From TrEMBL:
Organism: Blastococcus aggregatus
Name the record gives this protein: Phosphate transport system permease protein
Function as written in the Swiss-Prot or TrEMBL entry: Part of the binding-protein-dependent transport system for phosphate; probably responsible for the translocation of the substrate across the membrane.
Lineage: superkingdom: Bacteria
Topology term for the membrane: Multi-pass membrane protein
NCBIfam families in the cross-refs: phosphate_pstC
Tagged with keyword Cytoplasm: no
Length: 316
């Protein structure tokens, strides 16, 4: 029986898309282009408005010491608060994700995951009030203990803040705020661990913890890093909670328990913008440009890390 074969060099006809497919494809493409246009517009606005501050003499910039001296402490405070939040939130989020996906019964896991996700729905100003009125006073005894026993460490040199409104407190508040982001992404990655990997480890005699250490954590490493980077991006841009909790005195210091704390870029903009005019506004926008670049870089890094294992499967 003869079979009809395509002649060499002939092109396979492309499938004809239905009208609904064409509309959906065009809408999705337009949405992607619109997002890029908006992002480019925001970047262009920040650059244009920051140019006067970049060209202004040092004495005209708020503080009288130049733009670098103005933004430097703010950038330091932003990174310090975000790093504290990341160090505290990441291990806790991974532990919660492991408990929900590997240990908890299904009903408890579903309810606990829902409660953790609800933390992301709480407004930041509520976190700020909670931090200033409940958390900060209760941390003062801990700060005094740290000063008395670990005062030789620059992080806890003191003198202890009487109100508890310190960089350490601000970092803890940020940690609670970014916890749902890291935990949600980590849980989804842990759920995608191939069952074959887990069962093979258990069949070889591994305990549950050994199975998690050998099969689950290596598979989810990129998800953990990606979730941590996304949480870091959220922490870098937080405004109201930091503005309420942190007692600002300016300057660069690693002391986490004293009343002398650098502010963050976002909190400084929120506090100073209503009363600013002229070159002061351009200076604040220039600091916002720095924050925009850092946040954009962090999110791009997170996306790169997450996509590194997009083609990973249980077969390889």
């Amino acid at each position: 029986m003869s079979q009809t074969r395509s002649a060499p060099g002939t092109r396979t006809a492309k499938p004809v898309l239905r009208r609904g497919d064409r509309i959906f494809s065009g809408t999705a493409r337009a949405a992607g282009i619109l997002i890029m246009v908006i992002l480019a517009g925001v970047a262009a606005f920040l650059v244009v408005e920051a140019i006067p501050a970049l060209r202004a003499p040092a004495e005209d910039v708020p503080g009288g010491e130049g733009l670098t001296a103005y933004i430097g402490p703010l950038l330091f405070g932003t990174l310090l608060a975000a790093v504290i939040a990341l160090v505290v939130a990441t291990p806790l989020a991974v532990a919660i994700a492991l408990f929900i996906t590997q240990y908890a019964p299904r009903r408890i896991a579903s309810a606990l995951g829902y409660l953790v996700d609800l933390l992301a729905a709480i407004p930041s100003i509520v976190y700020g009030f909670w931090g200033i009125y409940w958390l900060a006073p209760r941390l003062v005894p801990l700060f005094r203990w740290l000063e008395e026993n670990l005062g030789f460490v620059p992080l806890f040199a003191g003198p202890t803040s009487a109100t508890g409104r310190t960089m350490f407190t601000a970092g803890l508040v940020l940690a609670i705020m970014i916890l749902p982001i890291i935990s949600a992404l980590t849980r989804e990655v842990f759920r995608q661990v191939p069952t074959l990997h887990r069962e093979a480890a258990l069949a070889l005699g591994a305990t549950r913890w050994e199975m998690i250490r050998l099969a689950v954590l290596p598979y989810g490493r990129s998800g953990i890093v990606g979730g941590a980077m996304l949480g870091l991006g959220r922490a870098l841009g937080e405004t109201l909670a930091i503005a309420l909790v942190l007692s600002v005195s300016g300057g660069i210091t690693f002391n986490l328990i004293s009343s002398g704390n650098p502010s963050t870029i976002a909190a400084n903009i929120a506090l100073q913008f209503p009363e600013s005019s002229g070159i002061a506004v351009n200076t604040l926008i220039a600091s916002g440009l720095v924050l925009f670049v850092i946040t954009f870089a962090v999110n791009m890094l997170a996306r790169y890390v997450v996509n590194r294992r997009s083609e990973f499967s249980g077969a390889n």
